Amino acid sequence: MNHNNQSPNIIAVIPCLNEERFIGGVVAQAVKYVNKVIVVDDGSTDHTSQVAIQAGAEVIRHPVSRGAGAATRTGLEAAFKSGADIIVTLDGDNQHNPDEIPDVLKPFASGEADLVIGSRFLQDARVPVFRKFGIDLITWLYNVGHKKKIVDGQSGFRAYNRKAAEAMNITYPGFGFSIQTLVQARKRGLKIAEAPISCIYHDAGSTEQPFIHGLTVALAVFKIRMREEFFKTGKS
Question: Is the pLDDT of residue 210 over 90?
């Protein structure tokens, strides 16, 4: 948070790939709630960058696709350089509703969180059964062996205060980063909270086959947890 009772500098980071269809609307909504929107175009071959700029975002472009984790890392680093006190991450495919940014930020006001997960399962979000199974498996792999549980370990709609964001060391280029960051936060004793969000799934939303995606992430989570349990030093 800023000092001298000033409002916090809130920056939204939106990693995306080939989302020209949705990114303009997402940026236009998000700018209402934050001081700046940073779109990380992860090597798109369409007009994602141009549409995002027209909608009011600052755009950082990867020449080739490096993965969701790498794009998020780029966005977090850029937000730091812009003096962010709070960083909100959300998807660029219109799956997340930017109008819910205030809901995700709410736990910061009472000091009950360093990291907030926008959870699809605290209210009746309509998640396809095959996706729900994969998310539940990934979340279980994160929860097992720990008293404090979460219900949605795979949501990309999150908010980090500066303390939490500085603790992140994203080394997984793909979607395994979503659990890697939670494990890092937990190891550092940071307060993790969840806030209810809705979710919209589009046919054009995800380019990766959901079953393969879920399996790949679950394997990454297993590796992260094994390192957490057997190598207690260093960053997971």
Answer: no
